[in-house]
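INFO batch 0412 | record 1 of 1 | parsing
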Amino acid sequence: MKITPTTAMQKLQNISDNELFSVCFIKRSDGTEREMLARRGVSKFVKGGVQNVDPEEHNLLHVFDMGRYNKLRRAGESEADAGPDCYRSINLESILWLKINGVQYEINDFPMVRWQVTWGKGMARTVEARSDVEARTTFKRLEGLKSMPKGATICRV
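INFO prediction complete | emitting tokens
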């Protein structure tokens, strides 16, 4: 089901505490895509203190990353060690899709961005895509490749 970014933000903000949902968004820090199975309202591992960033001012939603938590636990970390490292912030302005109660919502208004792929000795190609993952897929299709060239880099332009 296609929805607008505003509707997606509302749906995420209205999810009840401890309800699982999946989301895919573009990270602000490096422009890469992140998929996450998350929960809101997990406070078991919060150690106190003050948040460095006001989530409303920066259009962020603080969540607990269940996928990361489960991965750390399977790797042998104790609950007390794994938990505090699993808090994340979702950039509400760059959601690509979300899945709540088994219903997947595609965001139909997400802007295209120009990405440059460089490889080899001075080889480069610019593609338009909504995320780095989509840019890689587009690049491979245009170049007729099954995988990215060894040493290839991708960045926003």
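INFO post-check: Residues 132-143 form the longest helix (12 residues).
INFO record closed
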